[in-house]
Amino acid sequence: MMDMERVLSMGSRLQRLLVEAQAEAEQMVSEAQKQADEMIDAARTESNRRRMRAQRGTGLEEMLSEEEKKAEKEAAKVSKEYEKQVEELKKIPAEKTDSAVEFVLKEVLPE
C-alpha cells in the first residue's frame, strides 16, 4: 500500500511540474511575441518619423519599406529563438517524467 501511495504522490508531483513548465513556456512565447510586436512598432514609428522629416526625395518609400522588412525579419528571428527555447523546456519535463515513471515502476513492481 505504501508503494502505491508513493507512486500516486510522485505522479501528482510530476503533473504539477508539467503544468508549471507549460505555464513558463507559454509566458516565454507571450514575451517573445510582445518583443516582436514592439520591434515592428518601433520600425514603423521610425519609418513614419523619417517620412515626415523628408519633404521630398526619391526612393524614400522604398527605403522605408526595406527598413520595415528588416525589422520584421529581426522580430521573427527573436520570436523563433524564443520558440526554440520553449520547445527545449517542453522536452525537459517529458524526459524527466519518463525517467521518473520508469524509476517508480522498477521500485514498485517486482521483476
Question: Tags for this entry?
Answer:
rod-shaped, 111 residues, 2 helices, mainly alpha, single chain, 0% strand
Total of domains: 1
Q: Determine Rg (CA atoms, Å).
A: 25 Å
Q: H/E order of the elements?
A: HH
Instruction: Give the overall shape.
Output: rod-shaped
- Biggest sheet character: none
What is the strand tally?
A: 0
Share of helix among residues?
over 70%
Average pLDDT figure: 79
Number of helical elements: 2
Taking pLDDT < 50 over at least 5 consecutive residues as the criterion, the unreliable ranges are: none
Strand content: under 5%
Secondary-structure content class? mainly alpha
The N- and C-terminal alpha carbons lie at a distance of 18 Å
Protein model, in words:
The structure is a single chain. By secondary structure, this protein is an all-alpha fold. The protein has one domain. It contains two helices and no strands. It has helices spanning 2-53, 60-108. Helix 1 (2-53) packs antiparallel against helix 2. The longest helix has 52 residues, at 2-53.
Write the layout of secondary structure elements.
Layout: H1 2-53, H2 60-108
Précis, in short:
This protein has two helices and no strands. By secondary structure, it is an all-alpha fold. Helix 1 (2-53) packs antiparallel against helix 2.
